[in-house]
Design brief:
Layout (H helix, E strand, L loop, with lengths): L8 E3 L9 H16 L3 E5 L5 H17 L2 H6 L9 H4 L6 E3 L5 E2 L2 E2 L3 E6 L10 H13 L45 H27 L6 H4 L7 E7 L6 H6 L7 E4 L5 E6 L6 E5 L7 E4 L7 E5 L1 H6 L9 E3 L7 E8 L6 E2 L8 E2 H10 L3
Parallel strand pairs: 1-2
Antiparallel strand pairs: 2-12, 3-6, 4-5, 6-7, 7-14, 8-13, 9-12, 9-14, 10-11, 10-13, 15-16
The structure holds 2-oxoglutaric acid and fe (ii) ion.
Fe (ii) ion binds next to loops.
């Protein structure tokens, strides 16, 4: 972080361990200021094991750079009703090749895998997986159950699924696709989801306290079944002249300018500098894109649209983009800690309420 960085560091540890009220309140004061401006900050002392964060990044890198083309194809995101296994596509989950993801009407220069909170526990992703499951069940004496059951909090979410109706699926109602290569991918990422769900809860609890006026439990109460989203993103270097063109926003960029939709984004990124940028507006100055470079041991956090609404517009869902200017291959894993699917989120002045799931559907239909 350069000395002029406008992005503060928030120590979240008081919300992870029993702490005296004065410590909670001093964290909240810093948090509230950071959420109001610039809407981006670093989160330190988050208690995530370093071995796990390293592994999550390494697995994503290995998948993007070394997985066989057939494996990428197997877990590819499909439109609703499309794809194998009787139409397993849900228009959201799965792998996207470079250019598949569109932001602001333009194709992004990245590849990615998207996962969403499971709504169909125990339902297999493809037929082969089903066969594997049956074997597992048989070997466990028939009492087992499918993959994803009994796997901690990630597996405890049955908001409308679990009935094994099978494909074709509706928009966003499919089954998560897990790479078989590299080995251990799913296990590491499911552990990561559990840890990030806990951390997200701590962050929104702090945010509730920071907003005051009886908000203490509002976010915790509306994120108990967080409709979280996780992406693993691989950014190759931008194509030759695109690198220069991307600087002024005119050419191809790694990820186009956008705000995130939900409560709070917790971003784990590799050590690549000069990629993620936030739009910072300071009073008396013109707005500008500022690099949000990685800080050792910290996550990058930003406020999403729903949190901005809940704060009555006091907090900003700051626009950001990725222009990966270096020559290496960058990897990031954002975890979007979101409201429950059916959470009702108030509007800012003059706007009506929204149901978060409906808001998300609208975004996904519009291809981000
Ligand atoms: O890769 C990054 O640094 C950020 C990606 C991002 O903004 C997003 O996926 O919403
Ligand atoms: Fe984003």
């Amino acid at each position: 972080m350069s000395p002029q960085s406008p992005f503060p560091t928030i120590d979240i540890s008081p919300f992870l361990h029993p702490s005296p009220p004065w410590r909670l309140h001093s964290t909240c004061a810093l948090l509230s200021a950071a959420c109001a401006h610039p809407g981006f900050f670093y989160l330190a002392n988050h208690n995530l094991p370093r071995a796990l964060t390293d592994r999550v990044l390494a697995l994503a890198r290995e998948f993007f750079l070394d997985a066989p083309a057939a494996e990428k194809e197997r877990i590819k995101r499909r439109d609703v009703g499309q794809g194998g296994n009787g139409g397993r596509g849900d228009g959201a989950r799965g792998y996207q090749v470079i250019g598949d993801n569109v932001t602001g009407g333009k194709r992004d220069w990245h590849e990615a895998i998207d996962w969403y909170r499971p709504v169909r526990e125990g339902e297999p992703f493809d037929e082969e997986e089903e066969e594997e499951e049956e074997e597992e069940e048989c070997c466990a004496g028939g009492g087992g159950g499918g993959k994803g059951k009994g796997k901690g909090k990630t597996g405890s979410s049955k908001s409308g699924g679990g009935d094994r109706q099978g494909p074709p699926y509706e928009l966003l109602k499919g089954v998560n696709a897990w790479p078989r290569y590299p080995e251990g991918f799913r296990e590491a990422y499911e552990e990561y989801v559990d840890k990030m769900s806990e951390l997200g809860t701590a962050v929104v609890r702090a945010m509730g306290l920071a907003l005051g006026h009886g908000m203490d439990d509002v976010f915790v109460g509306n994120t108990r079944k967080s409709a979280w989203v996780m992406r693993a993103i691989g950014y190759p270097p931008l194509p030759g002249d695109g690198r220069a063109a991307g600087e002024d926003g005119g050419g191809v960029v790694s990820c186009g300018a956008h705000s995130d939709y939900g409560c709070v984004t917790l971003l784990l990124a590799d050590e690549t500098k000069g990629a993620l940028q936030a739009w910072v507006e300071t009073e008396g100055e013109e707005g500008r894109w500022v690099d949000v470079d990685p800080v050792e041991g910290a996550l990058v956090v930003n406020v999403g649209d729903m949190m901005s609404r809940w704060s009555g517009g006091k907090w900003k869902a700051t626009r950001h983009r990725v222009v990966h200017k270096g020559g290496g291959y960058r990897v990031s894993v954002p975890f979007f800690f979101e409201p429950d699917w059916d959470a009702r989120v108030p509007g800012k002045e003059g706007e009506g309420d929204v149901i978060y799931g409906e808001y998300l559907e609208g975004k996904v239909k519009g291809n981000f």
